[in-house]
Amino acid sequence: MGVLLRNDILVCAFVAWAVAQTIKVIIHMLVMKRFDWRRAFGMGGMPSSHTSFLVALTVMVAMREGMDSTI
Predict the structure, then answer these.
(1) What is the chain's pLDDT, residue by residue, as a tens digit (71 residues)?
(2) pTM above 0.85, yes or no
(3) Is 37 exposed, middle or buried (0-12, 13-18, 19+ CB in 10 A)?
(4) How far apart are CA 49 and CA 21, in angstroms?
């Protein structure tokens, strides 16, 4: 577990996922005027936590390896 926490690329991707999930819950609470745990852990909706994770992962790898890398 310690090795994963030292991997800054994965940490950045998971932080992006968590931020997107948090924003999704806050938007749902503001619109529906109630808290729903399913929005915190469920799929779908905007902002997309899956897309946030993948974009953060891709950007971090591109920054680390360079844009001209085959990785």
Answers:
(1) 688 778 999 999 999 999 998 988 898 889 988 887 777 777 777 778 889 999 999 999 999 998 887 77
(2) no
(3) exposed
(4) 6
Q: How far apart are CA 68 and CA 61, in angstroms?
A: 11
What is the 3-state secondary structure of the chain? CHHHHCCHHHHHHHHHHHHHHHHHHHHHHHHHCCCCHHHHHCCCCCCCHHHHHHHHHHHHHHHHHCCCCCC
